[in-house]
Design goal:
The protein has one domain: Rossmann fold, CATH 3.40.50. The protein is globular and about 45 Å long. Strands 3-4-2-1-5-6-8-7 form an eight-stranded mixed sheet, with helices on both faces. Helix 2 runs parallel beside helix 8 and helix 4 packs across helix 6. 39% of the residues are buried. The protein has 234 residues and is an alpha/beta fold. 33% of the residues lie in helices and 21% in strands. Strand 5, helix 4 and strand 6 form a beta-alpha-beta unit.
């Protein structure tokens, strides 16, 4: 996840409509897998791993991020969370790459690197920002290198040797408004985040809109702000 956004939202990140809704979509996507051991690549604070530990039934998390200044261990609800700059082979059954691949030059290479560390039949859950025409100063601020369509990110995972199980867009109901704003300011790529703290009413309304989308989310291959892909290592 993007630590720059966590710096903006602070301790309220878990209640912010965007992260709360993305975590709910993640949980819905991986629920049938009943993952037990998580490998969270580019984990930052480990927000999404910690969510699956408290809400999704996972039992442990290994969070890997080159940005960590040291290794450390903690517990969430009595479950171990390890923070490491790198890792060796692991028996983790679900690899999370939440908003990671858009930051690196060789996206398929990064997936291939971690696919080599897990066993056959391990699953990967990948999220990336969607659609190049939505490029804005928000992407510049977060140091993105690209945005993806679903076919593009699915092709990247296949290039890395994975088998795509399913893909879908999320934040489809807020997509028209976000797209209108981005297109209205097209050409203005000054680095600045479009994510901010919201008042209680706005936050509750956007949370409700995204919650209403959840039942249809797995079938949405038309449009959204984020592309989700579930894949497996053969």
């Amino acid at each position: 996840m993007d630590l720059k956004e966590e710096d903006i939202l602070g301790a309220d990140i878990g209640g912010h409509w965007y992260y709360r809704s993305k975590a709910a979509a993640l949980r819905r996507m991986v629920a049938p897998l009943a993952p037990r051991r998580l490998l969270d690549v580019g984990a930052g604070s480990g927000f999404f791993s910690r969510h699956l530990l408290t809400e999704g039934g996972a039992q442990s998390a290994l969070c890997v991020d080159v940005g960590y200044d040291r290794n450390r261990d903690e517990n969430v609800d009595g479950k171990p969370v390890l923070y490491r700059r790198d890792c060796g082979p692991t028996d983790c059954d679900l690899v999370l790459m939440m908003d990671v691949l858009e930051h690196v030059h060789d996206d398929a290479g990064l997936v291939r690197h971690y696919a080599g560390k897990v066993r056959a039949n391990a699953h990967f859950l990948v999220t990336v920002p969607a659609f190049r025409f939505l490029w804005s100063g928000h992407d510049v601020f977060l140091e993105h290198q690209r945005r993806y369509t679903l076919p593009e990110i699915e092709a990247t995972l296949r290039e890395a040797g994975l088998v795509v199980v399913k893909g879908a867009y999320f934040f489809g109901l807020v997509f028209p408004l976000a797209a209108a704003v981005r297109l209205a300011t097209r050409g203005d790529t000054r680095p600045r985040s479009s994510l901010s703290r919201q008042g209680p009413l706005t936050n509750a309304a956007l949370t409700a809109v995204c919650a209403a989308e959840l039942p249809f989310f797995p079938y949405n291959r038309l449009a959204g702000l984020t592309a989700f892909v579930l894949a497996t290592k053969p």
